Amino acid sequence: MNLWQEYKKPASVAEAIEALVSATDSVMPIAGGTDLLLDLKQGRHAPVHTLIDLTFVAEMNLIEPRGDELYIGAAVAINRVATHPLVANYAQALVEAANLIAGPQVRNTATIGGNVAHALPAADGTIALTALNAQAEVASPSGIRRMPFTALFAGPGKSALDKGKEIIVGFYLPLTKKGQASCFKRIMRPQGVALPILNCAVWLEREKDTVKDIHIAVGPGGATPFRATEAEAFLREKPLTEENFSGALEALLTQAKFRTSARRASADYRKHIVGGLFKDVLETAWERAV
Predict the structure, then answer these.
(1) Span 275-287, mean pLDDT?
(2) Pair (103, 36) in one structural domain
(3) Least C-beta-crowded within 10 Å: which of 1, 14, 209, 213?
(4) Mean pLDDT of 38-50
């Protein structure tokens, strides 16, 4: 049985939306296809009549500054995100996350939008974008709108978007300014393409010895991408001391909902190791924010 019957290559966002809504049978957008094609082949996804290839949409392949924000198109390959100088300059946590996604061959094909659209709450790119306070640009038959990045997620593996009518066009990140920096790191099992046990991203703004502002994301800390808002509130307007770090970690552990994964780690083990990872990421971002 063929995995699909029709394959369309729109050249614009408008053409892509038209192709989606005019399909007479099951339809799915596709970019790198590293998840979708494997799921179709292995029977984890029902056969699709029409695939809409988004990689030919010029708007979705751009990386460029727009005003005081950095725009990254959803069809940009992960490896291009990892090596682009603008991303390195303004979103270092995203570069570090992108460099850890799968292996080199996958990174050359998989896209940043696909990493997000798969809706896993601990995906590396997702955790970095959460900490960077990204916004998503989404297209639908009613037009293009912006929405908070975390509003894209409805649950583990469940997107809040209607894939038969809506597509992620790209992402907007605030441009990093002097005194601001970010970092992403993870703990993983050293087996083939290593699967993460836990990952963490921090963006912060430093004013001398004080944490002026901070965003903390940890995965998996819940059913959707987790922002440690209580730990953030605890650290704001405070010096980064051991005592204040301990208070922030306690707040994070109280708020996070770690889960057990048979293939990765237990919830108790994640609680045990998150402190060391969080401290490492926080201190690295702090040292960069000069």
Answers:
(1) 98
(2) no
(3) 1
(4) 87
Instruction: Supply 282's token pair.
Output: 């926080």
| Count of domains observed in the chain | 3
Q: Are residues 20 and 117 in the same domain?
A: no
1 in any annotated domain = no
Condensed to tens digits (0 to 9), the pLDDT of residues 186-232 reads: 998 766 556 789 999 999 999 999 999 999 999 999 999 999 999 99
- Measured CA to CA, the distance from residue 123 to residue 134 in angstroms comes to 15
- Same domain? For 117 and 74 the reply is yes
Q: What is the mean pLDDT of the chain?
A: 94
Domain of 151 in residue numbering reads as 59-174
266 and 188 together in one domain: yes
- pTM (predicted TM-score): 0.95
| 43 and 69 both lie in a single domain | no
End-to-end CA distance of the chain: 58
Q: What is the pLDDT of residue 1?
A: 58
Helix 242-255 × helix 267-288 angle, to 10°: 140
Q: Which two tokens stand for residue 289?
A: 């924010």
pLDDT at position 192: 54
Residue 106: which of 129, 75, 77, 138 has the closest Cα? 77
| Residue 276 and residue 185 share a domain | yes
Q: Is residue 85 part of a domain?
A: yes
**Portion of the chain with pLDDT greater than 70, in percent:** 98
Which helix (DSSP H) or strand (DSSP E) does residue 237 occupy? none
Question: Which H or E run contains 200?
Answer: strand 196-207
H helix intervals, 58-111: 78-83, 85-90, 92-98, 104-109
Name 214's bridge partners.
204
Count CB atoms within 10 A of the CB of residue 174. 16
The answer to whether residues 41 and 76 belong to one domain is no
